[in-house]
Write a structure and sequence with these properties.
The chain has 335 residues and is α/β, with parallel strands linked by helices. The chain has helices spanning 2-7, 26-33, 62-77, 133-143, 160-169, 190-202, 219-232, 267-287; strands at residues 15-22, 48-55, 95-102, 105-111, 151-153, 212-216, 238-242, 256-259, 292-298, 311-318, 321-328. The strands form two sheets. The protein has a seven-stranded mixed beta sheet with strand order 7-6-5-8-9-11-10, with helices on one face. Strands 1-4-3-2 form a four-stranded mixed beta sheet, with helices on one face.
Length: 335
Amino acid sequence: MARANLWLRTASRVLARFGTFHARALGELERRASLLPWDQYLTPGRPVHLRVTSRKSRLYHQGAIAERIGNGIREVTGTAPESASANEEASGDEQVVVVRLLRDECLVSLDSSGELLHRRGYRLATAKAPLRETLAAALLMASEWDGVHPLIDPFSGSGTIPIEAALLARKIPPGLNRQFGFQRWCGYEQTKWDALVESARRGILAEAPGTILGSDRDSGAVTAARSNAERAGVMRDLALNKASVSSLKSPGPVGWMVTNPPYGTRVGERQRLRDLYASLGNVLRRDFPGWHFTMLVAAGGLERQTGIALGSVFETKNGGISVRALSARGVRDSR
């Protein structure tokens, strides 16, 4: 579990299943919750935050469910949860318990991560429409970048894709410089965690094996990217510059382009971005033939303006917008 929190690049959180039982009444829910060995994990005196969801179950009121689970915790530990709210986001210091009811089956899990895992700690400066670190890592992994050949992001914004690329290439754990929820549990052994971290540090490469380039036409975004890269400890592995898409030049015959261009979710924006996507396609065909290309797009068909044959890799959401990762294993013209 500790290793998963330290190393997982695309997960939002790591949950530890703590208990499973059937409950169709509040009294039954509280009684069964009080049978769980809360005192083996939850540290007395520390606030407990409950996150509750219920679907297709007789018990549906999230506040009432949180209250009864809280009573069960108090019966075992002698301490009532200080935060028994249903779904507000935890502040970061609480011990988080996740309760899910589905068809009257209650699944109780402990959140071993604490803050969401995309919060690596380096991205304090942001540009417009920032990309989550976990999604940037997912794009890189979906692209099948080898970590050795050059990688370019022509819409780098606050630098998330280049920074995640450097962390990946140098084998730096994404959770190396942060704290986790399980470190506040009873029975947490600092010496074991220290040994795990030290083992990870020994495997870190001194520098990225290949060239990693990031560019953006917004000078403020480039400044933010450089600040974030400094905090992540990878600035010397990156070249971050102000540049337009049309000025891109290939640094070699083989490489990867991984990027998150503007989506144009409004009709007027989509019209304006058609030329931008067309320019990107022209640059790819002219200077990057044979390169691997992966990008994140929203609905609207702007990717067709590139004229590049692209296949869908995965679908997800970014900032509440449905998006798809599209990829070409070697740029070729689809027209």
